[in-house]
Amino acid sequence: MNPTPSLQQAKTRIKQLRKEIIYHEKKYYLDNNPQVADFEFDSLMLELRKMEEKFPELITPESPTQRVGEQPLEGFASIKHSTPMLSLDNCYNSKELKKFEEKIKKNLPSQKIEYITELKIDGLGISIIYRDGKFTRAVTRGDGIRGDDVTANVKTIKSLPLAIPENNDVEVRGEIYLPFHSFQKINHTRSEKNEPLFANPRNAAAGSIRLLDPKIVAARGLDVFLYSVYIEEQEQESQWDNLKKLKALGFKTNPLSRLSLSLEEIMKVYEEWQKSRDNFDYDVDGIVIKVNNVEQQKILGQTSKFPRWAISLKFAARQATTKINDIVIQVGRTGALTPVAYLEPVKLSGITISRATLHNEEEIKRKDIRKGDTVLIERSGDVIPKIVSVMKEKRTGQEKIFTFPSYCPVCQTKIFKPKEEKVSRCINPSCPAIMRKSLLHFASRRAMNIEGLGDALVDQLINEKLVTEIPDLYSLRLKDLDKLERMGRKSSLNLLDEIKKSKNQDLFRVIFALGIRYVGDRTAKILASHYKNIKKLTEPEPEELFAIKDIGPKVSESIIFFFKQPENIKLIQKLKTAGLNFSSLESSTREDTYLNGKLFVLTGSLSSMTREQAKEKIENLGGIVTSSLSRKTNYLVAGSAPGSKLQKAQKLGTATLIESKFLDLIKEK
Ligand code: IVH
Fold first, then answer.
1. How many angstroms separate the alpha carbon of residue 309 from the centre of ligand 1?
2. pLDDT means per 10 residues in the chain (669 residues)?
3. Please, what CATH class does the domain formed by 7-66 belong to?
4. Would you state the CATH architecture of domain 319-401?
5. Domain 507-588 and domain 599-666 have a common topology
6. DSSP reduced 3-state for 201
7. Is 252 among the residues known to form the active site?
8. What distance in angstroms lies between residue 290's CA and the mean position of ligand 1's atoms?
């Protein structure tokens, strides 16, 4: 047991701990470059907390333990801003931007003008005051004149320093935002609790900053980019200097600000960020163009609403309104019935959208979506567009309530919906819709890899009743294929050859091809290397299955359920009769353990191979490829245009391999 330290010893240790913690917080939250493992950081924090508990008289508001206040707030006081927080004028294309520049040139004749471009973060404007170098107050933009005092909530933002090296009064302004990864986490938890989801990160950030309990705010994961600083008795010469000063004081600024001399350069920056905006971990709705020189800014002045020296050039909207022309049910490979809205085509961030998923029956009811409704749709990241909300004020009375069918729209079998599930399913294994998707999955590259068996051909095989179940593929003959449209002799022979070749595929491919729910190609590999033969897998001992590393209970149950269905056992029997290989081809001579168990994430594009090929190479050496980065990831393979994963890897300290290093690694074997 450590003896209780004296007050003086405690003072010294507390000072040292705070210094270390602040250093590591900065490295982690600002520089994306952590210097210690999480547990080491946590133990420093724990030691500080314990010390402060013993010596409460030594607690100061700037101590890193004081970010989260104990007491919930009662409300927010309204505070007047020192100078109004202005808004920005908007423009949408280079022509409009040119007009902005013409006005500037008129007011600053024959002067050289330098611009700075910044990202326009879609969050909430905030003003933060430091007195004597200490975080004192944070106020929302509000109506620009007055805002709400949200000091306790803003204090929980970990990238924001609680103390800065500047004794004069300082006001910084910037944008609070919710990173996408935090937004998704929050919505995931809300959906599990059946709570309404936030429509976008901005709403979620706005909702979070107005919560009365700072403890809950702290858990939301808000962050902030600062873009301006006013220091008493000190003036920066340019916006660039502003950003430099902010950084020097320990604030987080967006790293993508650029200096530009011409509109051409600005437009290039605009195009570049517009293209890559889905790779950022925060929502960006355009760029802000600012005259860099502060003297010039002063000459240009401002209107009652906007500065005349800045403008925002907006990106094409990701949200749009359109009409639902029809609601149609689609049947997936697992028999899941998904309602899809057919929309009046509308452009959204450069892409014409004519369909949006409605997920399931509950979703339609919850949002009260009707055929004929005008809806707000949104696309974020690569995600399929979704319907954010119904504009009920636009209803004419002609809209039709959608009744979810009780029978499969394709084969008319009664649909099945367990009480605890949201999804309705068609459970007829010979439903043509399921058959179509199952066949495509069976033949796909990562499954049996039957080249040439694509959508059009599968449709024909099913329509002509040449294939009513998967094993029928193996009895196809040349004369059957000759009947089909657009199938020449050569293609038919190639296809038959491909089908024949597939009989010798490895066991893991067959397992994956069966389309067992939750069994992806990675799980299929684990199963194949454990069981080595299909026979044992078809009669799994639950205990054995549960004990396999990386096979969770949901997957185990699904496997057991699959092999309990007599039609699935029959299917395997027929495939066996057709001559398919059902044993693992893993041979002891193959050196496939070099990367055993190592977790990889791929990002960006490689020049020497496709992602699919890279995945195969890694897996052949025993590695595992996953889609999301975590602390467990061993390597991030970064091709060109790697996006936000690269930043995240740096933050997590994950080893990053550029293409040449990756090639070296897989060659090393
Ligand atoms: S400058 C006087 N820079 O956009 C200058 N604003 O639509 C006014 N915003 O109220 C703000 N990113 O909340 C500026 N890089 C950026 C910004 C930014 C986001 C917000 C800010 C402002 C709103 C105007």
1. 12
2. 82 96 91 83 93 94 89 86 94 95 95 96 96 96 92 96 96 96 86 72 90 91 97 96 97 96 95 87 93 97 92 87 96 92 84 86 94 89 75 95 95 90 87 93 93 92 93 95 88 94 95 92 89 89 80 89 91 94 69 73 87 84 82 88 84 88 78
3. mainly alpha
4. Beta Barrel (2.40)
5. no
6. helix
7. no
8. 10
Indicate the top mutation candidate among 85, 86, 88, 124 to test ligand 1's pocket, ranked by most ligand atoms within 8 A of CB: 88
The secondary structure of residue 2, as a DSSP letter, is P
Q: In this predicted structure, what is the pLDDT of residue 367?
A: 93
Ligand 1, residues at Cβ distance < 6 Å:
86-88, 118, 120-121, 125, 141, 175, 227, 288, 307, 310, 312
* Residue 574, amino acid: K
Which class would CATH give 599-666?
alpha beta
CATH number of 432-502: 1.10.150.20
Fold classified for 90-314: D-amino Acid Aminotransferase; Chain A, domain 1 (3.30.470)
Ligand 1: centre distance to CA 253 (Å): 13
CB count within 10 Å of CB 87 equals: 13
| Residue-wise burial string across 278-310, b where 16 or more C-beta atoms lie within 10 A, e elsewhere | bbbbbbbbbbbbbbbbeebbeebeeeeeebbbb
d(CA 26, CA 6): 30
Atom 18 of ligand 1 has which residue's CA nearest to it? 120
3-state secondary structure of 29: helix
- Domain chopping of the chain, boundaries: 7-66, 90-314, 319-401, 432-502, 507-588, 599-666
Which residue puts its alpha carbon closest to atom 17 of ligand 1?
120
Phi-psi region at 148: left, alpha or beta (left = phi > 0; alpha = psi -120 to 50): beta
Please give the CATH topology (third level) of the domain spanning 507-588. Answer: DNA polymerase; domain 1 (1.10.150)
